[in-house]
User: Fold this.
Amino acid sequence: DLIVCEDGSDDAYTNSLVGVTPKGEVYRFGQGHAAVELAGCTFSPDGSTLFFNVQERGWTMAVTGPWQERAKPS
Assistant:
Protein backbone atom coordinates (compact mmCIF):
# COMPACT_ATOMS: atom_id res chain seq x y z
CA ASP A 1 0.00 0.00 0.00
CA LEU A 2 0.99 3.60 -0.48
CA ILE A 3 0.94 5.64 2.76
CA VAL A 4 0.57 9.42 2.35
CA CYS A 5 0.46 12.38 4.73
CA GLU A 6 -2.79 14.30 4.43
CA ASP A 7 -2.55 18.04 5.15
CA GLY A 8 -5.62 20.09 6.06
CA SER A 9 -6.05 23.76 5.33
CA ASP A 10 -6.84 25.14 8.80
CA ASP A 11 -6.04 24.61 12.49
CA ALA A 12 -9.34 22.83 13.21
CA TYR A 13 -8.61 20.07 10.70
CA THR A 14 -7.02 16.87 11.98
CA ASN A 15 -4.24 15.65 9.70
CA SER A 16 -3.94 11.95 8.96
CA LEU A 17 -1.75 9.25 7.52
CA VAL A 18 -3.84 7.71 4.76
CA GLY A 19 -3.31 4.37 3.05
CA VAL A 20 -4.18 3.65 -0.57
CA THR A 21 -4.41 0.02 -1.70
CA PRO A 22 -3.35 -1.18 -5.18
CA LYS A 23 -7.08 -1.24 -6.05
CA GLY A 24 -7.46 2.45 -5.11
CA GLU A 25 -9.25 1.87 -1.80
CA VAL A 26 -8.47 4.59 0.76
CA TYR A 27 -8.31 4.12 4.53
CA ARG A 28 -7.12 6.12 7.53
CA PHE A 29 -3.91 4.61 8.87
CA GLY A 30 -3.15 7.13 11.62
CA GLN A 31 -4.24 10.51 12.89
CA GLY A 32 -2.43 13.52 14.32
CA HIS A 33 -3.67 16.12 16.75
CA ALA A 34 -5.35 19.27 15.40
CA ALA A 35 -2.93 22.00 14.31
CA VAL A 36 0.04 19.69 13.65
CA GLU A 37 1.21 18.66 10.21
CA LEU A 38 2.31 15.11 9.51
CA ALA A 39 4.97 14.99 6.80
CA GLY A 40 7.67 12.94 5.14
CA CYS A 41 6.33 9.42 5.61
CA THR A 42 8.64 6.69 4.34
CA PHE A 43 9.46 3.07 5.11
CA SER A 44 12.88 1.78 6.13
CA PRO A 45 14.74 -0.09 3.37
CA ASP A 46 13.69 -3.47 4.81
CA GLY A 47 10.03 -2.35 5.09
CA SER A 48 9.82 -3.05 8.82
CA THR A 49 9.46 0.55 10.08
CA LEU A 50 7.35 3.50 8.92
CA PHE A 51 8.83 6.91 9.73
CA PHE A 52 6.94 10.21 9.64
CA ASN A 53 7.51 13.70 11.00
CA VAL A 54 5.34 15.91 13.20
CA GLN A 55 6.37 19.25 11.76
CA GLU A 56 5.35 21.71 14.48
CA ARG A 57 7.00 19.64 17.23
CA GLY A 58 10.15 18.70 15.36
CA TRP A 59 9.55 15.01 16.08
CA THR A 60 10.27 12.00 13.92
CA MET A 61 8.08 9.03 14.77
CA ALA A 62 8.85 5.37 14.04
CA VAL A 63 6.05 2.80 13.75
CA THR A 64 7.05 -0.86 13.60
CA GLY A 65 5.14 -3.78 12.11
CA PRO A 66 4.42 -6.55 11.60
CA TRP A 67 2.73 -5.29 8.46
CA GLN A 68 0.10 -7.20 6.53
CA GLU A 69 1.45 -8.51 3.25
CA ARG A 70 -0.70 -8.30 0.15
CA ALA A 71 -0.72 -10.94 -2.55
CA LYS A 72 1.26 -9.96 -5.62
CA PRO A 73 -0.94 -9.07 -8.61
CA SER A 74 -1.15 -11.88 -11.14
About this structure: The mean pLDDT is 84. The chain has no helices and six strands. Residues 53 and 60 are 4 Å apart (CA to CA). The longest strand covers residues 26-34.
